[in-house]
């Protein structure tokens, strides 16, 4: 599966939603997550994310992000169409420590 990581927080560009063939993204207030049981590993979303937030879970040290994606995909609503990103999305690009500052 692919997972969404902290670079998405407060950026939420949603280009990923447009390209996913199985609509497996779920929307929280500040970020999206991927449902690990629904993702078919096609990989098309990874290069579409301007924040480089999406990674295959075969990369090292992503266990906690995989757990977070699984947990919140069950809690948050499915999103199938791109919306307007936050007006200040670009200001949060490359910001450090977004998980601690904004995730709730
Ligand atoms: Fe959707 Fe493919 Fe990305 Fe998985 S890898 S979330 S199926 S676009
Ligand atoms: Fe987030 Fe990137 Fe999608 S910023 S909403 S994972 S395009």
Automatic annotation (TrEMBL):
Q: Which cofactor does it need?
A: [4Fe-4S] cluster; [3Fe-4S] cluster
- Where does the record place Basic and acidic residues bias? 81-103
- State what this protein does: Ferredoxins are iron-sulfur proteins that transfer electrons in a wide variety of metabolic reactions.
Q: Which UniProt keywords apply?
A: 3Fe-4S, 4Fe-4S, Electron transport, Iron, Iron-sulfur, Metal-binding, Repeat, Transport
Q: Which GO terms describe its molecular function?
A: 3 iron, 4 sulfur cluster binding; 4 iron, 4 sulfur cluster binding; electron transfer activity; metal ion binding
Q: Which residues form a coiled coil?
A: none
Record's protein name: Ferredoxin
Q: Where is this region: Disordered?
A: 78-104
Q: Which domain of life is it from?
A: Bacteria
Checking InterPro entries in the record gives: 4Fe4S_Fe-S-bd (IPR017896), 4Fe4S_Fe_S_CS (IPR017900), 7Fe_ferredoxin (IPR000813), Fd_C (IPR022569), FdxA (IPR054829), RnfB_subfamily (IPR050294)
Cite the 4Fe-4S ferredoxin-type domain residue spans from the record: 1-29, 30-59
A single Pfam family it belongs to is: DUF3470
- SUPFAM superfamilies reported in the protein's UniProt record: 4Fe-4S ferredoxins
Native organism is: Kaustia mangrovi
């Amino acid at each position: 599966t692919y997972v969404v990581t902290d670079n998405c927080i407060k950026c939420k560009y949603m280009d990923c939603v447009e390209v996913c063939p199985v609509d497996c993204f779920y929307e929280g207030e500040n970020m999206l997550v991927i449902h690990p049981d629904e993702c078919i590993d096609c990989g098309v979303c990874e290069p579409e994310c301007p924040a480089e937030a999406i990674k295959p879970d075969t990369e090292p040290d992503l266990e906690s992000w995989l757990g977070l994606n699984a947990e919140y995909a069950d809690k948050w609503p499915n999103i199938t169409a791109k919306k307007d990103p936050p007006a200040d999305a670009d200001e949060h690009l490359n910001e450090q420590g977004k998980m601690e500052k904004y995730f709730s």
